[in-house]
Amino acid sequence: MRPEPFVRCPARPDTGPGAARPLAELERRCLDLRTRPGAGRLDPLFARLDDFVARAGELIGDLSDPRGPQPQARRAFRRAHADLAHGFGEVARLLALPARLGIASAHFSEEMLAATALMAMLAPIRTDADRLHATLSRDIREQFHPGLRDPIEMALADAGCADPGGGARRIRGWRSSPPEDKAFDDLLPGLATILGRSDDPDGMLATLDTIVVRQPAAIAILASLPSLIALLGDAPGLLPFLIAQPALIHRLIDGSASAPLPPPADLDAEFGHLIGTDDRQAGPPRIAARVDAHRFDLGLRLIERTADPLDLAAAHTRLAEAALRAIAADTLARMREDHGTLPGSDLVIVALGRFGSSALTSRSPLDLAYLFTGDRGARSGGRRPLDADAYYGLAAERINAALAPLHPTAPSPRPCPVEGLDGLISDPVALTRARPVHGPDAARSAVLAALRRTRSKACGIPRRSPASGPYDVERVRGGLVQLDHVVRLNQLRGHAGFDPELRTAIDGQVKSGLLDPAMADAHATLGRLLMVLDLLAPDGTGPSPEQRPAVARLCGHDHWDGLEADYGAARVIVQESWQGTVARMMTTDG
Fold it and tell me: Are the C-beta atoms of 351 and 368 separated by less than 8 Å?
């Protein structure tokens, strides 16, 4: 993130009364409202008001400081105002719900009737808050950017841009004719709001500018800009795809990105064509570009809610499998050209981890194992012969290198014969997720038989890696890793629900009575949240207040509070199931 320049402003002890008055009025109205019957229903809104008032008071105090309000304080104030706006909307929907459902007021509780009566008093409070925000924004703008009168520059300064003049020049450069001025002006408030939520509004605007100026000539900028601004606010993680492949803007505008992922046979044909052209060195990069185009489409389907996030996780898996098949087939063809063939021997690639469970995100690593059939002492018959270990070791290195631009690849052990599977992957829990994804049918059957033999061995209790934050949905206590361990241990000890795909395994264990039916709902909640956060807030710390409504909506909830409650309940269900599973294991082993 680019740091904002340090600006030393002259001390202005007279700065602040303009903001102090609306702050005092807002506090007075809030105090009055809190004393009225039914105010308890508005506690979530009061919490947001308290935060907004605290941030405003901090800024008013900082206005007289020679350094002026610091960037982090200004960002916190803008976010508190945006969060407050969401709070007002949520309360209005809550209090209006009975009327919308046709419930007569006679059936309201006294508390609900009192809270509904308070709705008329919310409008002046919101007006005061907006006036305070506008006044403080003006005071800060005058301190850091004195003399601004241009409306675009003023809007960008209020959004936190360190260089509003440069940003305004970028935006004006998008216009191709004076008649478009009004249409561009109508888009400016929404753009400024989105920029104001960012830690780096200048960088975000520069990214948008890069996309706009690289658009194909056939695309009218004004036609694409509303969609781009919406994407900037909803899923900035998709913007790098548009920078790398400007032509993807067509799919954003014409709606073709909403089409489902092609079936496996069509993906195989598509990727086979890309890698089978004359310039074979360019094949893997071409596949990587096409995979990114499909990922862009899947991301749009997520934010447009045209597919269940759990189904999109399976789609990401099918996409990775198709890319792997094309790359592996091409790599082995080259190996035969350079080193000949190994008679009676075949390579099988096994998917592990989330790849094996058919639940990839766009950022998940590909966890792979390489096995081969036939005689380990065999030697290829080409002009540069290799023994089996060296032959398949070189093939695995080339496949991993070609896959690296598509997915981070977990370190793969050296290839080994199928009979050495238990030495290659000694953890039977990991093997319950194992799934052959490349190789001839007969060789796959040999691998599946070896997997069944290895799973039958005793296993200990797997450990969970520490979480990076409360919304590291995979590793958090009661998260997806722990849920997966419960299911896999039940597979090994209860011999039920044997399937690498987690959803299918859970359904089987619920039917057999090994799992509480609530575990299916817990998995759905955790899995959907993981997919959404992977796109919107992948660092594990959780979404920002501005992102929370979108995250809740994409996970199928009306409000963030409902999603948060379901997330907590899902983690409790997983932890209780884990404790029950461990207790059963200890009883059996004892």
Answer: yes
Sign of the four-CA dihedral 498, 500, 504, 510: positive
pLDDT at position 97 is 57
DSSP calls for 251-287: HHHHSGGGSPPPPHHHHHHHHHHHHSSS-GGGHHHHH
pLDDT at 212 over 60: yes
Cα–Cα distance for residue pair 480/571, rounded to 1 Å: 9
Q: What is the pLDDT of residues 537-556, one digit of tens each?
A: 887 788 887 788 889 999 99
Number of neighbouring beta carbons within 10 Å of residue 73: 16
Long-range contacts of 502-506, Cβ-Cβ distance < 8 Å, separation of 24 or more: 502/357, 502/358, 502/359, 503/310
Q: Token match 């007969």: residue?
A: 442
Element holding 62 (H helix, E strand) = helix 43-62
| Cα→Cα distances 280→191, 277, 323, 334, 391, Å | 43, 6, 15, 10, 20
Interatomic CA distance for residues 584 and 590, integer angstroms: 10
- Please tell me the number of Cα atoms within 13 Å of 101 on its side-chain side: 10
Query: According to the 3-state scheme, what is the secondary structure of 122-137?
Result: HHHHHHHHHHHHHHHH
Per-residue model confidence as pLDDT tens digits over 58-89: 888 888 887 878 888 888 888 888 888 878 88
Which one, of 66, 188, 44, lies nearest residue 122 by Cα?
44
Per 3-state DSSP, what percentage of the chain is helix, strand, and coil (rounded to 5)? 65, 5, 30
Sequential DSSP letters for 525-587? HHHHHHHHHHHH-TTSS---TTTHHHHHHHTT-SSHHHHHHHHHHHHHHHHHHHHHHHHHHHH
